[in-house]
Amino acid sequence: MPVIRTQDRIKTLQPGDVLTVTATDPGALSDIPTWCRINGHSVTESWQDGAEIHIRIVVGDA
């Protein structure tokens, strides 16, 4: 579900915009960066704070 929500949100943004995704699904740490690479976006940072996972994405020219 985090990848689908990320995909939907990125569709509303412009290239160069920054999106920080917050999720509790541990799979997001691998799924979202993989999706970003495939779709031309860049993960600049990821970290975990307790049960929450945060992933910072720069929107590409996909």
Which helices and strands occur, and which strands form pairs?
Elements: H1 2-10, E1 18-23, H2 28-39, E2 42-49, E3 52-58
Antiparallel strand pairs: 1-3, 2-3
Q: What's the main sheet like?
A: 3 strands, antiparallel
What are the secondary-structure elements, in order, as H or E? HEHEE
What proportion strand? 25-35%
How many domains, as an integer?
A: 1
Strand order across the largest sheet? 1-3-2
**CATH homologous superfamily grouping:** TusA-like domain
Classify the fold: give the CATH topology: Translation Initiation Factor IF3
How many beta-strand segments? 3
Just give the CATH class. Answer: Alpha Beta
Oligomer: single chain
In the CATH hierarchy, the architecture is 2-Layer Sandwich
The 3D shape can be described as globular
- Specify the helix fraction band: 25-40%
What class, by secondary structure content? alpha+beta
Calculate Rg over CA atoms. Answer: 11 Å
Query: How confident is the prediction overall: mean pLDDT?
Result: 96
Unreliable stretches: none
Gap between N and C termini: 21 Å
Counted by DSSP, the helix tally is 2
How would you describe this protein?
The chain has 62 residues and is of the alpha+beta class. The chain has a single domain (2-58), classed as 2-Layer Sandwich (Translation Initiation Factor IF3). The chain has two helices and three strands. A three-stranded antiparallel beta sheet has the order 1-3-2, with helices on one face.
Keywords summarizing the entry:
34% helix, 2 helices, alpha+beta, globular, 3 strands, 62 residues
